[in-house]
Amino acid sequence: MRRNSNEIAFGDDIRQTEATKTSASFTWTEPENPHEEYYIGIGKDYIEAGKDVEKDPDTVPADVTSYSFDGLEPGTKYSIVIRYKDLDTGLNLSIGDNDVLKTMPDKVQNPRSWGFLAYWGPTARIRWDAQPAADKYEVTAYDKNGKEFKNFETIGNFCNEEFIADKNNEVYSFKVRAISTVLGNEVYGKWSDRGYVIPAPRMYTDTGHTLTIVKNGKLNFNCKKIKGCDGYKVYISTKEKSGYKCVKTLKGENSTSVVLKKFEGKKFNTHKTYYIYVEAYKKSGDKTFTSLSYECNRLRNNDGQRIQFRDEDPEKRK
What Å distances lie between residue 147 and 141, 174, 177, 286, 288, CA to CA? Predict the structure, then answer.
């Protein structure tokens, strides 16, 4: 972390005077009593700043009352501790109490979905990587055609949100930006890339929601069409919580008919238990977004039954 001196001073205690995405400048009031040089510590909380001032402080001459830190993280709060030795009393004293600096907000990263409640709303659940200095976030949501249909601000610095969708079988996208008060002004960061919320397609047969193994050991079923997706992936395992393998990829939102001839090189056995679920996916640039499946179909003794997954991380199943 590179540090520079700056000799412009004003204000009481510790006051921030400048900010960029990666730097912050501040001043402090000079003590009335004679004193030695200042020792300054910085951290993402008061405890961390206190440790820094004890172990590796920055040193500033006694006649300077301003300083700058470079190499900071964007959209982040930092605590500052300034200490000095009072020559009259010999005591080590501090200026201010847990004073906070802020850097300017940056582009929000990693917008993503954490689920879609298709039959309870329907409700899209979204999240993104937090920026600690943000006071709130602005969210804009779009339908499958890219048309804006919702814009709102969060209450406080929460990076998990929900919004009511129009339909339960369509892809939605959204973008986010951070809003932070820095030096008394409300500052807007850059918009994030698009994140996508994709409902999980349910499986069914022509006669209902029960999956069955048909003649010659094949497994036939359809999945619910998700408008705006780029296709579907079918996962199967013989264990409920792990070992899922992608056995078929269907391209296009209309490719909802599935015929599986074999699993792990063998025909499907009517006396064996299989766990099956389908993910819809959407490509955007070099990223692929998928629906989050919180349920699967258990096919036991050729009798299908929909069950809920007990975990909430689809990647742990694979």
Answer: 8, 10, 18, 22, 21
